[in-house]
Amino acid sequence: MVVGVLTVDLYFPESRSIKEKRQYLRSIKERIKNSFNVSVAEVDGQDLWQRSLLAVVCVGAERSIAEEILAKVRNFVDKSYPEFILSTRVEFINL
């Protein structure tokens, strides 16, 4: 079993408050969850009003399955929100 983790570092230049940032994040998280059946959480930057670090997690029987899912999520985020992305990173944990 393999756990895949995609982290996405986001910057919201137009955000003027934490509440406004959370509106952006809620939309992004729901679209990812609904489209790919993965878990999504804000793991850093909760107290910042323009920055956030999202973690997208999936589990697969083989690494290739997790790689495929996270590649699709990454492509979706890159195409849908290019103006917000600072960086992305993918990691895999074998269990």
UniProtKB/TrEMBL annotation:
Highest taxon in the source lineage: Bacteria
A Pfam family assignment: DUF503
Protein name: DUF503 domain-containing protein
Top-level taxonomy: Bacteria, Pseudomonadati, Aquificota, Aquificia, Aquificales
